[in-house]
Specification:
Layout lengths: L3 H6 L9 E5 L3 E4 H17 L7 E5 L4 H13 L2 E4 L6 H11 L3 E4 L4 H11 L2 E4 L7 H8 L13 E7 L7 E6 H14 L8 E3 L6 H14 L3 E3 L5 H7 L5 E4 L1 H8 L14 E4 L6 H11 L4 E6 L3 E5 L13 E2 L4 E5 L12 E6 L11 H7 L6 E9 L5 E6 L4 E3 L2 E3 L1 H9 L4 E11 L3 E10 L7 H8 L11 E4 L13 H8 L6
Parallel strand pairs: 1-10, 3-4, 3-5, 5-6, 9-10, 9-11, 11-12, 12-13, 23-24
Antiparallel strand pairs: 1-2, 7-8, 13-14, 14-15, 16-17, 17-18, 18-19, 20-21, 22-23
Helix pairs in contact: 2-3, 2-6, 4-5, 7-8, 10-11
């Protein structure tokens, strides 16, 4: 039976003895061996009581087995929710409950904290450790390999949760066709072939590392050097064996800090790609001067995967995200959705087979952001120049992208405002040489209170993932406001723009 995504990405590789995952110091895994493992994990998912269309939530450390569970979910027609490992138990509880997940897979170290979460949500809990141990690994070892389930192009493949400006996270519904169409375009646009070797140091709970990097490699049939995380020593050790690398700006700034990064080290590389956060123009210049390579920057988001890319051949312009990808329509609009003249700044709207189906259980929010004609209102502010290059100049939804992770200020502000001694707060993003943007909080204390920034950080650690926590906290007597009483965040960004970058 046909399975739209699995057949295209993996079906044709099932009997291949070519290397799929190159594991540093742990040997290699062939496409055939990985497919067999994924089929057993698919069997374990079904044995746990899940059927096509049911949801499984994963808060796991990056490992071959985590990837095999995801591929197994594709194979079984089960919808998966990849969750950031930094999320707290309270955050995971919301995702599992909202999605109605029947199974939560976690690392053994998180089991004590997540057991009551799963029980409260009516979900089963199983452990899958990065070293291949745990109750779910044991279940897969005795499970029968599951035949490929039939799934159509429009069937739901994944729920990707992205924070909302109201503080409530939204589950973006991604179909089999959404994921496959985008991977096909990117593999062709970036000239991936079976002769490539992708250096993979990204997390796989995120669109970038999973649906971009991994799916492109699968379509090309090339191996991946599969690092558990970004580590400059490990990346430098393996760059001579790679031909391509996808990363966030942090990867590039940290490698530039290492004198071992030379032209000789990357002589065999053909392509460096950056995304998930803005790359400073200075980083572009330094990287090209040091390595002779011009980083290719692109633009995407959770709800759409990739929308634009600088060209493979031709000028890769720093400060831009290139052109709309083939099959993606893009326009810059005013508040009423009317297209603006070339060069003017407005809200970016996109339409194409990559655009998601809507927000899980949020029909009103879907209607607000997804027009009836198929255009998605991204909330990003941008412009298209005379040569067709797209520039992102801001975010109407106030989104901060720090180290490749989305942070919505409202969620952080709600947590801050709930703390003793805090009257009100405003959260902004400012330039950061390592993370692209950093979260900065400006708080106004209650009369007579003297908030301690370190105590505030400690308190936020109980409810917010680390990447959402402010890297700088400023105390002010009042927040700047306009005549309508709205906080002027632009003034705060201007005031604090040099906190991390002189």
């Amino acid at each position: 039976m046909a399975n739209h995504l699995y057949d295209a990405l993996f079906g044709r590789h099932e009997g291949s003895e070519r290397d799929f995952l190159i594991l540093p110091d742990h040997g290699n895994i062939s496409y055939a061996a990985f497919a067999e493992r994924a089929a057993r994990f698919a069997g374990a998912l079904v044995a746990s009581g899940l059927k096509p269309g049911d949801r499984v939530a994963l808060q796991l450390e990056k490992s071959p087995d985590m990837l095999a569970v995801i591929v197994g979910a594709f194979r079984a027609g089960i919808v998966f929710l990849p969750l950031n490992t930094a999320y707290t138990a309270a955050e995971v509880e919301y995702f599992v409950a909202d999605a109605g997940a029947k199974l939560l897979l976690c690392d053994g170290r998180a089991e004590p904290a997540l057991a009551p979460v799963a029980a409260g949500c009516g979900a089963a809990l199983a452990v899958l450790n990065a070293d291949g141990t745990g109750s779910f690994a044991e279940a897969a070892a005795v499970a029968d390999p599951l035949p490929v389930a039939a799934r159509a192009a429009d069937d739901l493949a994944a729920l990707l949760y992205t924070s909302g400006t109201t503080g409530r996270s939204k589950g973006a519904m991604m179909s089999h066709a959404n994921l496959l169409s985008n991977a096909e375009v990117l593999a062709a646009y970036w000239r991936f072939t079976a002769d490539d070797v992708l250096l993979h140091a990204l997390p796989i709970f995120h669109t970038h590392g999973l649906f971009v990097a991994t799916n492109v490699a699968l379509l090309a049939g090339c191996p991946m050097i599969f690092l558990p995380k970004f580590d400059a020593d490990e990346v430098i050790r393996h760059l001579p064996q790679a031909t391509t690398m996808m990363g966030v700006p942090t990867f590039y700034t940290r490698l530039l800090d290492d004198p071992r990064l030379t032209r000789d080290l990357v002589a065999g590389m053909r392509l460096f790609i950056s995304g998930s956060a803005p790359l400073l123009a200075e980083t572009h210049r330094q990287w090209e001067a040091r390595t002779g390579h011009r980083i290719l920057e692109r633009y995407g988001m959770t709800e759409t995967n990739m929308n634009t890319s600088n060209p493979y051949e031709g000028e890769r312009r720093a400060g831009t995200v290139g052109f709309p990808l083939p099959g993606v329509e893009m326009k810059v609009c005013d508040a009423e959705g009317r297209a603006l003249p070339q060069g003017e700044i407005g809200t970016i709207e996109v339409r194409g087979p990559n655009v998601f189906q809507g927000y899980w259980n949020m029909p009103e929010k879907t209607a607000e952001e997804l027009r009836t004609n198929g255009f998605f209102i991204t909330g990003d502010l941008g412009a298209i120049d005379a040569d067709g290059y797209v520039s992102i100049v801001g975010r109407g939804k106030d989104l901060i992208i720090s180290g490749g992770f989305n942070v919505y200020p409202k969620e952080v502000e709600l947590a801050l405002d709930a703390l003793p001694g805090v009257l009100e707060s405003a959260v902004i993003g400012v330039p950061h040489p390592d993370f692209g943007e950093a979260v900065v909080a400006v708080i106004v204390p209650e009369p007579g209170a003297a908030p301690d920034p370190e105590a505030i950080r400690a308190a936020l650690g109980q409810s917010l993932a680390k990447f959402k926590q402010p890297k700088h906290i400023a105390v002010r007597a009042a927040l700047p406001r306009n005549t309508m009483g709205k906080v002027q965040k632009a003034a705060l960004r201007q005031e604090l723009r040099h906190v991390f970058v002189p």
